[in-house]
Amino acid sequence: MKFLDHCPADATADLVYRACPMHLLEPMELMKDLKQGQVLEILTDYDGALEDIQAWCAKHGQEFMGICEDACDDCYKLYIKKLA
Amino acid sequence: MKRGYMDHAAATPVRPEVLEAMLPFFVERFGNPSAVYDLGSAIKAVMEEQRGKVARLIGARPEEIIFTSSGAEANNLAIKGMALANFLKRGKHLIVSGIDHHSVLNSARFLEKFFDFEVTFLPVDRYGRVDPERLQKALTPATVMVSIGHGSNEIGTVQDIPELVAVCRAAGVPFHTDAVATVGQVPVDVKELGVDLLTISGPGLGAPKGIGALYFRNKLRLVPQLNGGIQENGRRGGTENIPGIVGLGRAAELALQELDEKAVYLAKLRDLLIAGVRKNIPEVLFTGHPEKRLPGHASFCFEGIEGEALIFLLSSQGIYANTGSACASKALKTSPVLGAIGVKPEVAQGSLVFTLSRSNREEEVHHVLSHLPLAVERLRSFSPVWRKKMAEVAGA
């Protein structure tokens, strides 16, 4: 797992407290609106997302940039870059 | 026999236009909106169309509406969902008004009992209004949210929500209002009110029982109270009640078209009823605010008698009213709402609430006015409390 200190993003998907698999469905929709090279931030409290998001990126040819741990927020912040 | 059904806060018939819109979704168009094939996606599109209609009624965006099974569920989701999602950042203090609906009060008590929240039950004035200064004083750095109902189904008072929201907004505290009594009765716009969450119920609009909705300002986090799948974007599990949602959508559409005309019509009937009762019955207490009240709501307390007895006597004449909120009336307890506005228990016992709808006619009000004074007089004639009072008056 790659850890990031800070990562600016072009869009955010806040999936905190929302049922699985919203952590995959909503980012997939939002990625459609992003341009190549833009970054999507995913906020989630679901542990399974750490594995699922990486796997989804690998399968769909997108870049999983890493995870940012924020002590102020009770959630994971994952970053993916649109490649295609 | 002439009839006068005036207990619409307890139950309102489904409007024929609403029923007609719902019917295809029981048998012909039965698909599950989560299904990926066309039978499902077509239903999903219908559901989103209804979300838009409900949103338009209250000036919200479609994505800010969550469909629920009732106003009570929406209140539970608003209060427990918001409090549990935000207490780590804000704290475990919650403020509600002392006259809110049971689904608000008991959600707060649930958090108090099982999650160690501290709850402030704000007092109200003699009209049932919350004083913004008292709210200001009750706020603490740990206040996670405030919930104060928009309109009271028991005393008819409409709260000045923008004034209360301003206090909370200055402190950065989210505000929820239970608008079950007001949506479809008076103009309700979430931006004008400034609220972060707002509860809607279907039956008051002429939709069936079993459907409600919660408005939540976009970006707010809520902990689901019905755990399940990804329905309602992962915020409320359970296959959606599509006929109910279609009914609510159609009812919202009609409510928006008819709102201004309806409010004027109901206020005219209400004022006729109030004036007639005050003129023809001695020792009557009119409850709630005289002007800032629901257009179709008239509530009274008749000293010396039991509201339950009055209800039974009136129903024998085809007149249907209530002693308070339908949820509390069977408990035969003195109403906490009337207690909160300072009505003495012996007076509060004689509570009577009329809630009108557009189906009521002036003749029905006259029918009530021709029987209510006689019913009150009859019950008082064998009331020891009333006799004692009259003896005291005569002695003085």
Describe this structure in words.
The complex is a heterodimer of chains A (84) and B (396). Chain A contains 2 helices and 5 strands, in the order ββαβαββ. The longest helix of chain A is centred in the first third of the chain and has 12 residues, at 22-33. Chain A has helices at 22-33, 49-60; strands at residues 3-4, 11-14, 39-44, 63-69, 76-81. Helices cover 29% and strands 30% of the residues of chain A. Chain A has a single domain, classed as Translation Initiation Factor IF3, CATH 3.30.110. Chain B has 396 residues and is an alpha/beta fold. Chain B has 2 domains: 4-11 and 259-395, Alpha-Beta Complex (Aspartate Aminotransferase, domain 1), CATH 3.90.1150; 16-255, Aspartate Aminotransferase, domain 2. Helices cover 45% and strands 13% of the residues of chain B. Chain B is built from 15 helices and 12 strands. In chain B, β3, α4 and β4 (118-122) form a beta-alpha-beta unit. Chain B is globular and about 75 Å long. The mean pLDDT of chain B is 94. Chains A and B meet through α1 of A and α3 of B.
